[in-house]
Design a protein that fits this description.
The complex is a heterodimer of chains A (about 325) and B (about 500). Chain A contains 11 helices and 6 strands. With about 325 residues, chain A is α+β, with helices and mostly antiparallel strands. The radius of gyration of chain A is 25 Å and the shape is elongated. The two termini of chain A are about 40 Å apart. Chain B is α+β, with helices and mostly antiparallel strands and about 500 residues long. Chain B has 3 domains: about 200 residues, Multidrug efflux transporter AcrB transmembrane fold (Up-down Bundle); about 90 residues, Alpha-Beta Plaits, CATH 3.30.70.3400; about 140 residues. Chain B is built from 10 helices and 20 strands. In chain B, strand 9 and strand 10 form a beta hairpin. The radius of gyration of chain B is 34 Å and the shape is elongated. At the A-B interface, strand 6, helix 5, helix 7 and helix 8 of A face helix 4, strand 20, helix 7, helix 8 and helix 9 of B. Strand 6 of chain A pairs antiparallel with strand 20 of chain B, so a sheet runs across the interface.
């Protein structure tokens, strides 16, 4: 049996530092922050592939500004491939050369083609401000509802134990930890690679959540089993025994998933690369938080130290107690 | 071997054979092949929001349905394979055109109202501006509204600065016209506004009617004019239309007749002689003529649509994604198989066989439901495979503990499965809760990837639980009756 819970102070310190670092990188201050996809910011996003290899980002930026889109953000993804993010394109505008009514996308296409030669727009995406607002709102509601539903289910599944709601809360707190760390590392990597927060990213985060909650419950399940078998054992011992007993399962499964992720990262091709980055980071963080963070939070809560900390933060209550 | 286990094995074999044949046979139960999403197949996605008036909710729902039917007809004329057109409450219409790459063509065909109206020139009536009109204003104050009506086209300025606008609304009380936004006129006070076009009206049984697209027979045809060699749309009127058209053309010989599509002048040919049942529209490109013919044949939309979400994925890009996803899946599966067999030996091999059963059942369900397979769906499948393996790992670790405690293989298997069950149940049910919520919100969001992820993961987890608990166990139980059972070391690391 390994004494995991005796080292929980170190887990808290490590996670605290990691979380702080990640939050700094997520916040849109200075060079940091995430690149949000148009699903969340509204506007349009075009992938433009030129036949010429010598089109530069600056040329393209200048040309977009001339078209009245000085807000355009341009990202170079390959030698001759760019992603242009800009405000919502108009359904119809007047072509200044021909006087004909065309869509703004068509106007951009022909103008860029005149300037830089043959090009292709293999993918484009546009979303109106009202819709993107509802996407962000609904996504938030979905996350909150999912968290509450998980807490309720776990509380029910662990109902034979005291304070079974705490198991649900700690499992969800572990997930919050995982999501923040994955977002932070994604933001850090985003400085070097073209990574954006889009629907595929959301699917990746959800996969990490699904994977991490699985891990956490396996550990909690052992805690439940050991508690019921031996209710009078010291709480630290019960936790340590459960973590040790599930360790080989946790390591095997995580190693296996990680193996698959790394292989796919190397061999899976461009279209799923972002997704695999999230999964690789998420599996490592999720395994760690299931073993160390969710359990450590639970043990602090069970021992009443969370209450003491909250009491200290709330001077009036602390006063009333003394 | 126990009688019940033989029956279980037989059911598994039958189910496996059935699933494999569903997946392998191209045409089965009315399904041919997997249903692929736009991100894997390429294509165009258009989402519109309808602009409703003050009608009741039931009326609006009815008009939305009618709009959907008209769009369906237009898209069918386009000849796209398997278009998917549906409405979303309360005011959305979604058009998906798989395998189609021309997003601009699709937009102008699907989204425009296509209201065709005929107008004739007005002479001699004018009024003057009382305030200057600035760029993007759409309300214009005038000294007098007499001689104007809604739908009339008026002109301001002359020469190169001349501009025309259609009146969409009029307020007699405060003497203002409303025009469509984007009016660019910026001139001084007092310039005269001239009414240029007024709806062409004819009489049927003494009542006045405006000549419009609704009187056309659905026989419009994009063709090339014999003399000018330019693209045109040839049309034919029904009886009422023919009566109006001959009255109007009779009156306008030597003058232009304006043809307006969605309040934009597309043609103003001079009438040479009185015409009856047939006519043509010129001043179009070939693509415009083709689209217009389809739109006239299917009728105008009863409501105005605004784009809220558009997406285009080139079919080649889609094929790349599908290829990447499949390669990823195969590599992932191969790695899992190698690890499981090397580490858990015979038990691992049984788990891999169970995984094959799992894969066949999941694919068969996807094909039969059908579940639209997207990139995020593939991600969900990969995750559910991981969970299926995980369930087996949980079980085998338990069996290992029991064997080390000195139990026989048969007893260890039974205890291992029953001990591992609560963990498998609780972890999978928690994930299923997430799936239900994702499916539900993905639907509300109109976010197909999120919805597809929830659905595929949900199905994957349910099937993986069944295969881990039932199929692997049946295989393991069967092995306890073979000589292998004595070599316990072959069953755990």
């Amino acid at each position: 049996m390994i004494d995991f819970m005796g080292k929980r102070k170190w887990f808290f310190i490590a996670s605290g530092v990691l979380l702080l670092l990640c939050i700094v990188f997520i916040l849109p201050v200075g060079p940091f922050g995430l690149t949000w996809g148009v699903e969340f910011t509204s506007g349009s996003s075009l992938t433009v592939v030129f036949e010429n290899d010598d089109v530069t980002q600056a040329d393209l930026l200048a040309e977009m500004a001339a078209l009245g889109h000085s807000e355009a953000v341009i990202q170079k993804t390959e030698a001759n491939e760019f992603i242009i993010r800009l405000n919502t394109l108009e359904e119809s505008v007047q072509d200044p050369d021909t006087g004909k009514t065309v869509s703004e996308l068509e106007l951009i296409h022909t103008t860029l083609e005149d300037k830089f030669g043959e090009l292709d727009i293999p993918s484009s995406y546009g979303i109106s401000p009202s819709l993107s607002k509802s996407v962000a709102r609904n996504a938030t509601i979905a996350v909150i509802v999912a968290s509450i539903a998980m807490i309720i289910y776990i509380a029910w599944a662990f109902r034979k134990l005291m304070h079974s709601v705490r198991y649900g809360f700690c499992a969800v707190l572990g997930l919050v930890h995982d999501v923040i760390v994955v977002l932070g590392i994604y933001a850090i990597l985003g400085n070097a690679f073209p990574l954006e927060v889009n629907m595929m990213f959301i699917a990746g985060i959800l996969t990490v959540i699904g994977y991490s909650i699985n891990n956490t419950i396996v550990v909690f399940d052992r805690i439940r089993e050991n508690f019921l078998k031996n209710p009078n054992a010291p709480i630290e011992e019960t936790f340590n025994r459960a973590i040790t007993e599930t360790l080989s399962r946790n390591i095997n499964t995580s190693f296996l998933v990680l193996l698959v992720c790394v292989a796919l990262l190397a061999l899976g091709g461009d279209t799923i690369r972002d997704f695999m980055v999230i999964l690789t980071v998420g599996v490592i963080v999720g395994t760690y938080s299931s073993i160390a963070i969710a359990t450590a939070l639970l043990i602090e809560w069970e021992k009443g130290s969370l209450g003491r900390i909250l009491g200290r933060l709330n001077p009036r209550r602390a006063f009333a107690r003394s | 071997m126990g009688r019940r286990n033989i029956i279980t094995l037989a059911i598994i074999v039958v189910l496996f054979a059935f699933s494999v044949s569903v997946v392998a046979v191209t045409d089965i139960f009315g399904r041919s092949g997997m249903t692929l999403g736009l991100d894997l197949k390429g294509g165009v996605y258009l989402e519109y929001q309808a602009e409703f008036g003050n009608e009741s909710a039931a009326d609006n729902a009815g008009r939305l349905e009618e709009t959907k039917r008209i769009i369906e007809k237009r898209v069918n004329e386009l000849g796209v394979g398997e278009p998917d057109i549906y409405t979303m409450n309360p005011d959305r219409i979604v058009v998906q055109l798989p395998g189609f790459a021309d997003i601009e063509g699709a937009k102008s065909l699907v989204g425009s109202t296509a209201e065709l109206i005929f107008r004739e020139p007005v002479t001699g009536v004018s009024t003057s501006l009382v305030g200057s009109v600035n760029a993007s204003d759409n309300v214009i104050a005038v000294a007098s509204t007499s001689g104007f009506g809604v739908g009339d086209v008026f002109g301001v300025g002359s020469g190169s600065t001349a501009e025309t606008q259609t009146i969409v609304d009029m307020n007699q009380a405060d003497m203002t016209f409303s025009v469509t936004p984007g009016f660019d006129y910026d001139h001084a006070d007092g310039e005269s506004i001239v009414n240029q076009w007024t709806p062409a009206i004819g009489l049927i049984d003494g009542e006045e009617y405006v000549l419009a697209g609704k009187y056309l027979l659905p026989k419009c045809l994009a063709t090339v004019d014999q003399t000018s060699n330019q693209p045109i749309v040839a049309f034919e009127w029904n009886d009422d239309g023919a009566m109006l058209f001959s009255q109007i053309t009779g009156r306008l010989v030597g003058q232009p007749l304006g043809i307006f599509l969605d309040n934009e002048l597309i043609s103003a040919a001079t009438v040479k002689t009185q015409i009856g049942a047939n006519g043509q529209i010129d001043g179009l490109t070939w693509e415009e003529a083709e689209n217009l013919a389809i739109q006239l044949n299917t009728g105008a939309l009863p409501i105005t649509l605004h784009e809220v979400r558009t997406q285009k994925i080139d079919p080649i890009l889609g094929a790349d994604s599908l290829h990447d996803g499949l390669v990823a899946g195969i590599i992932g599966l191969a790695l899992i198989f190698i690890f499981m067999i090397v580490y858990y030996k015979i038990s691992g091999l049984m788990a891999c066989l169970a995984l094959l059963v799992y894969g066949a059942i999941v694919l068969a369900i996807f094909k039969l439901m059908p579940v639209t397979l997207t990139m995020s769906g593939i991600a969900a499948v990969v995750l559910s495979i991981g969970m299926a393996v995980d369930a087996n790992v949980l079980i085998f670790e338990r069996i290992k503990e029991e064997l080390r405690a000195g139990k026989s293989l048969g007893a260890a298997i039974e205890t291992g499965f029953s001990r591992a069950w609560p963990a498998i149940r609780d972890s999978n049910f928690t994930t299923i809760i997430i799936c239900i919520i994702l499916f539900w919100f993905g639907d509300a969001l109109g976010a197909a990837p999120v919805k597809g992820f929830g659905l595929t993961l949900g199905i994957g987890i349910l099937v993986s639980m069944l295969t881990a608990i039932i199929v692997t166990r049946a295989f393991m139980r069967a092995l306890t009756f073979t000589p292998l059972a004595k070599k316990v070391k072959l069953f755990h690391p």
